[in-house]
């Protein structure tokens, strides 16, 4: 899509430094999208408010039909960074389409476009109401029933990933999108990987991603398994129970300081078996879906 059509240019990209040093990387500046009419393939979308932002892009609500659009800038002086971001986008498209065919538990992706002149990629997705983190921040405390209804959906999503041999690696409340009827769907598959493939270095989000994911050394090689996501599911349940994520200090399932252990022994049992530092001793998604806390309401 040309500059004339999109009207977007990365600020400063037209006048780069003449001789950047070998370790210098161009920093992408924020581009205001609100209230702009931007083409994505053959459709025109009126961008509205920003819904959230991450390390590599932002998500906006937009109208042609109500959608969420993720905007990622691929303009960079580092070829390795550009390749990483491009691979992340392609992974998100592939994984989203694959999982959407298998289940309605994953945010659907409708369209994709790349504007060459601006270096911006656009991913058009289902629009939810907000993310789970917003629910947890606005509600002082979830009731037992509310927490269990959400947990049953999370366990179902865990099985969808497991059955499709996909490891998400970045499950957290911000990536769990709430739809009408309190339906939860999983989003942001940008760093997801196929199970039983090699993973190099660290990734994910501190405390919500498994310790073997976030604390690995730069060149450490590991095998992806769904047990890494199991930590994350336990961390989200812990957050719903104690209002903050767990620590990596064992026993990781114990409550935060100045809080008592939750009185439901079945919930505590799930935390005890998911928030385990040794991945070999951590349970798998089928264990979660069969657990009494999951199957009884």
From TrEMBL:
Gene3D superfamilies for this protein: Transferase(Phosphotransferase) domain 1 (1.10.510.10)
UniProt xrefs under CDD domains: STKc_PknB_like
Keyword terms of this UniProt record: ATP-binding, Kinase, Nucleotide-binding, Transferase
Database matches in PROSITE patterns: PROTEIN_KINASE_DOM, PROTEIN_KINASE_ST
Any one biological process term the GO annotation gives: autophagosome assembly
GO cellular component, one term: autophagosome
Domain Protein kinase residues, every copy: 45-294
Region (Disordered): 1-22
GO molecular function: ATP binding; protein serine/threonine kinase activity
Pfam families for this protein: Pkinase
Name of the featured protein: Protein kinase domain-containing protein
């Amino acid at each position: 899509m040309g500059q004339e059509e999109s009207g977007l240019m990365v600020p400063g990209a037209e006048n780069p430094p003449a001789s950047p040093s070998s370790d210098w990387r161009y920093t992408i500046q924020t581009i205001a999208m609100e209230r702009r009419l931007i083409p994505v393939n053959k459709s025109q979308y009126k961008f509205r408010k920003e819904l959230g932002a991450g390390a590599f892009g932002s998500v906006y609500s937009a109208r042609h039909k109500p959608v969420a659009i993720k905007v990622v800038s691929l303009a960079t002086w580092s070829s390795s960074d550009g390749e990483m971001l491009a691979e992340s986008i392609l992974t998100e498209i592939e994984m989203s389409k694959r999982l959407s065919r298998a289940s309605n538990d994953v945010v659907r992706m409708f369209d994709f476009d790349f504007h060459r002149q601006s270096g911006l990629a656009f991913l058009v997705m289902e629009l939810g109401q907000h993310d789970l983190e917003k629910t947890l921040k606005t509600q002082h405390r979830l009731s037992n029933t509310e927490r269990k209804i959400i947990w049953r959906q999370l366990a179902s999503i865990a099985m969808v990933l497991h059955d499709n041999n996909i490891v998400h690696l970045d499950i957290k409340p911000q990536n769990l999108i709430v739809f009408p009827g309190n339906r939860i769907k999983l989003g942001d598959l940008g760093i997801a990987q196929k199970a039983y493939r090699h993973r190099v270095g660290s990734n994910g989000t501190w405390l919500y991603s498994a310790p073997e994911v976030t604390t690995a050394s730069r060149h450490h090689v590991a095998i992806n398994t769904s047990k890494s996501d199991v930590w994350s599911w336990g961390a989200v349940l812990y957050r719903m129970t104690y209002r903050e994520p767990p620590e990596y200090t064992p026993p990781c399932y114990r409550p935060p300081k100045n809080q008592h252990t939750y009185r439901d022994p079945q919930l505590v049992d799930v935390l005890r078996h998911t928030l385990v530092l040794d991945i070999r001793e951590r349970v798998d998604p089928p264990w979660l879906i069969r657990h009494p806390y999951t199957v009884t309401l």
